[in-house]
Input
Amino acid sequence: MRELDIAEVAERSGVPASTLRYYEEKGLVAPIGRRGLRRVFDAGVLDRLALVSLGRIAGFSLEEITRMFAPDGRPRIDRTALVARADELDQRIRRLQSVSRGLRHAAACKAPSHMECPSFRRILKAAADGALERPGGKKPKARKARA
Amino acid sequence: MRELDIAEVAERSGVPASTLRYYEEKGLVAPIGRRGLRRVFDAGVLDRLALVSLGRIAGFSLEEITRMFAPDGRPRIDRTALVARADELDQRIRRLQSVSRGLRHAAACKAPSHMECPSFRRILKAAADGALERPGGKKPKARKARA
DNA sequence: GCTTGACCTCAAGTCCACTTGAAGTGGCAG
DNA sequence: CTGCCACTTCAAGTGGACTTGAGGTCAAGC
Output
């Protein structure tokens, strides 16, 4: 079991030391001890951080991630919740694909105004429709689309 | 050309009046005039807002959106930049797909610890590798992955 | 033993996209 | 003409995720 000091963890994970302290405060990671004042981490923290990273990318808040894989300390996860999240993520992915198509269309379309193009409008709508009700917390935007 | 008051725009777009004022301040939308103090919007603002929404979903900051489709006022867009953005977005989508797979795998995998599973580790790596260098501004996370 | 400087703590600051609140204005129904 | 209240302005507040700064500690090399 390798012991790492905070600078090594920072270097190997790419997560700044200040962030590591912040994560510790939030209960996302924990040093296995101290050498004087200095934190001593187990190399396993790198996996932990990778998991945090995964969660962040998936759109979870730190708070959610904390609850997810560390109610006690083990990476215990509610499998049902995970699948639900994956479903949400897939939904988001589909919208992003719409947006990507929209961007490419906008780049290619010769119409003077993109808004005149039916296919662009359709894409726009597809992307916008999903804009409501975000889980992770990126952009709720519209709660009552049309009265 | 229909004229809308701020409440109508808010209702039809789902964007709160406070946000519309904020957007105006940021140069994202503009009323065509005033009736007394009150803003009067052209119905076209709805398209504009849809475009803003599209941009937000794509991960652009308001600042970027402003520059993108309104250097002067028309929806002038740099097509090359758009394609570049679409490419970035596709890259992001691929990472998200990795994350989705990771979540589903975590939910299904019977290994006591996910970290023991090679396929999970692979997925994790795929997701993490792209975690650097974000455009829109969601999470740069690591600037110097490994020294 | 002394200096060095990486590490520590804690409070405050930053960024982004908004939201909220207080105080004021004025269009329009009655 | 009056009064209501939807609209206005401007300043300040919010929240999440960090970062920064001031001031302090201590392990280690000289």
Summary: Chain B touches chain A through 55 residues (CB under 8 Å). The domain at 3-66 of chain B is CATH 1.10.1660.10 (Multidrug-efflux Transporter Regulator; Chain: A; Domain 2).
